[in-house]
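Open question from group meeting: does this chain pack into something compact, or does most of it stay loose? Before anyone orders reagents, we agreed to write out a predicted structure and look at it together. Recording both the input and the output here so the notebook holds the full record.
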Amino acid sequence: MPTRRAPLPDWVIDQRRELGENIARYRKAAGLSQDQLADRIGKERRSVQRYERGERDPSFSDLVLIADNLDVSIAALVEMPPAGS
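Structure tokens returned:
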């Protein structure tokens, strides 16, 4: 049986939160609700909510679908603000 993974470092959690904020910002700019985005990527609304709150990491396939439906690049979604800003 695999051993339990250690908790994620704080910087990883911070980046997950930033990703969620980016998804929410681009979703709102596209004029989509969480329900609409969820329907477009084949997920439930609560999955989108969890991504946006930084509680869960989207799979790579979901990230590709999110970027496509928001008409942005994956790079734009995962872009982090410069350190110290």
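Observations to bring back to the group:
The chain has five helices and no strands.
The CA atoms of residues 37 and 69 lie 7 Å apart.
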